[in-house]
């Protein structure tokens, strides 16, 4: 997340169920104990029942808010036709399984994120996540003292989806035209959704009005992926929609999705430029952890809790990987992995 996050975030208490017109409703669903506050769940009406875009965090308070909010829109959970999950993260996919149980509807997401969900179910069964995280943090250069507190708790894996959506596919919403737009970066299978009969774009976490989504790489030292470059390419893809209204999963709806996509792309290019300058000034191989400490976050590195430093390291790793792919830095060590400016 960028340094602008804290200043632009709006409280959950200020949100309300909203009729956005053309059979689209916005329902704020809280994320208890999380500073992000809430997820905006959207309901798209159709003759055969509404389809939800995302579902919210798996928590009793969130489920109650979702059910109550839909009720204010005149929608019963039992009538929900299906849930389209923009990506597998728990504040989006967490309640999809409970909605399916209550309605008998389907859950849809992109195959790349469906694969992630299956992997998390396998990991939960093996209970191998703490060891894997410890090894990843150590290879990134985290100190032994930081390792225990930097390990993240694993939320309950979301429900395995019934339907896989490919790029360009129409979602099963009779009487509407809701088209899948694959936008990897924030997650491998993140999707936006173009409501063609209403000329709006549901942007999930891909394009947000006041904050930038987390673009991380896990494990940090992978060489087979480049999520930041994928994200930047996906921003270009969304920019082709021009000044359409954006309906994001957090914060508030806004106009001109293309302009905001351009701002976010510029933000990351600036971060890449600053990181490269910091590495040039250091003039020595840097671990991922040290590189992260040189980047700008929403608070000073010294003030970040170990778990947040771990997330920052994931984002630093993604930026280092893009610099590596562009031929601007190279790896000089493996345990811990280190990077140096390419000579």
UniProtKB/TrEMBL annotation:
GO molecular function, one term: hydrolase activity
SUPFAM superfamilies, A to Z: Metallo-hydrolase/oxidoreductase (SSF56281)
Sequence ranges assigned to domain Metallo-beta-lactamase in this UniProt record: 38-250
Superkingdom, taxonomy of origin: Bacteria
Alphabetic keyword roster: Hydrolase
InterPro entries linked: Metallo-B-lactamas (IPR001279), RibonucZ/Hydroxyglut_hydro (IPR036866), Sec-metab_biosynth-thioest (IPR050662), WH-like_DNA-bd_sf (IPR036388)
UniProt-recorded name of the protein: MBL fold metallo-hydrolase
Lineage: Bacteria, Bacillati, Actinomycetota, Actinomycetes, Streptosporangiales
